[in-house]
Amino acid sequence: MTGMRTAKIMTGLAIAGALATPASAAAVTAELVVKNYADIALAKYQDSLTTAKALEDSVDALIADPSAETLQAAKDAWLASRVPYQQTEAYRFGNAIVDDWEGRVNAWPLDEGLIDYVDGSYGTESDENNLYAANVIANEKVTINGEEVDATEITPEFLSGTLHEADEVEANVATGYHAIEFLLWGQDLNGTGEGAGSRPWTDFSTSECTNGHCDRRAEYLSAAADLLVSDLEEMVANWEEGGDARKEVTADPTAGLSTILTGMGSLSYGELAGERMKLGLLLHDPEEEHDCFSDNTDKSHLYDAVGIRNVYLGSYERIDGSVVSGPSVSDLVSVKDADLDAELKAKLQTTLDAMTVMSERADTVEAYDQMIGEGNEEGNAVVQAAIDGLVDQTRSIERIVALLELDAIEFEGSDSLDAPGAVFQ
């Protein structure tokens, strides 16, 4: 199923790329480019909301009638929801409103012992996190910042206002896609071996309950799914006409171009190539895998790369197959330096080709966490090729910043790329 989605989006990108260039590139202005950028943001977040609502419905169905089939349907809905959402991540790093909000929906990694039962190998305490194994599903009282907190009712308000990043610890991720992912799949205890999480459907059954507290587990899952929907509704509103994010990026078109390129470069380099990929490859550590419970990491990385490309081309294929397209950064660059525009387009394609190879390998040979395993030379090389593509395209993005005479932009960095030795200290 995931492989089919990959093929579909790559085909759609070829079409979208063809539609991305207006009749007269010379007539393209920064104002038109940032407006189209905002229009695409709205479409992406609308699609993310639509798929989150489908996930919410599937969670409701699972809770109403727990079975292997309804659990799988909820997993499938979660996987589908990641496709449009990951394409929004190129809107991070430059847009402050998105950055301030993003931790509520896509924060990772998480200390899953905060939420639910974990395997004994997980341990019971951490020097960095007093709530490392708090297991709020099993306990109606938890201690936060030295005070006892009533967790009798697990509501969206409790998750977002009390539990998420409790004790000011970033690993206390109580909300968003990855909290839901953990509740659907459970821990992946396979290391760099074959297999994802394997939570039984009976964990949500009140009549055939396994691992205890099945009613509270269902309550937590329902609250997290509801909260994801409301958070995405908020972001959709931010990009609608008159929304704060749209107003901010379009108020000064030149600054808006800097925002666009900051997002592209920072996601390409420090975040995706560095923190999400190279760090795990250096450490050969599956705990550094982005979608670590579901083994969906290869798809998440692929759609991040797709998102970077469609921001540059000013074109996005929606989940219904329609295309939102208009004036783009590519158009501005092509007028000033057609060779540089062609260079970045080629590099974006090279990265997507490498990501597609990685994704197809995940579908046919081994999962991403196996690819980064120590001693897996072939798998390591496949991941490294995608990293190399991301780093290389960032160099061209830097040149575009200079070409457009924008103020200096500092892209996000990563020790894994800039000072690999520091990773092992």
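That was protein one. Protein two is written in the same sequence-then-structure order:
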Amino acid sequence: MSTGEDGAVAVITALFMVVLLGITAIVVDVGMIYAERFELQNGADAAALAIAQDCAVGNCSNAGATATRLAGKNSHDGVSAATAIIAGNSVTVRASTATPDGGTAIQHWFAPILGINSTTVEAVAKASWGSPSKASVFPFTAPRCMFDSAPTDIELWITSTSTCTGAGGKTLPGAFGWLDEDEKKSCRASVDVDQIIGGEPGKSGPQNCDIDGKVILLPVYESASGQGNNVSYVIDGFAAFKVSAHSWPSEQRSEPGCVHCTGIKGTFITLVSLADLQSFGVEELGGESLNAFFVALSL
């Protein structure tokens, strides 16, 4: 092989090496970028959901620290930068690359051959929270004053003979009402806080409705009008109520707080749920904040 041919082979080999190193840069360094973005997205998602959960119960004060902590926990090297911006009922978390030595970009191994020394990677997540304004729920409503006066974490009976003082000092006897079901024996009623809901305070308890041991969304009403089987309720919002027992007229249950009563027993609890809205029958959010809040990623 002549000297000229040797030189040509050397040039071709050098060109192939550049191509080979370029492919290596794509495989290795771009792979690092995708891995970093995946970690940052996990951290941003986790931080946004955690902050939204805190804010739902009125504790937004440590949003920045929560974002930084959770972004770091989801990073392979344990370090990430993060910011949190709260606007209305939503929080936007932006997570970006941070390195233990104080850098803000991924340093590449092979890409510098192509003139790319480092890359800054970011991820954004947005989470929102809210209380139901419309839901398909167990057809049972109680007055707002019963929710307002309920002791914390103590079981109580909501029965047909319970009383509490409502708006304007008015006593509301017969403290619950049956709502008109969507379909007969369906155990469900569609309730919208923007509408007046019809009810049947005198009807017997629904049969075969599985509510014991479950958390239900209990529509609470601000006022009621009419009488007999022609009653209308002005629904104020939805309260989370954990049912421990029920008593319908045919069951003749007797215990403290319930002597041959009709009603449900349980506790008003603070519910901050990441569950699918449909699992609670929630159709729309934006209602008054009582004690039930739903959190979801919106970006």
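The helical segments are 3-56, 63-73, 144-149. Keep this in mind for the problem set.
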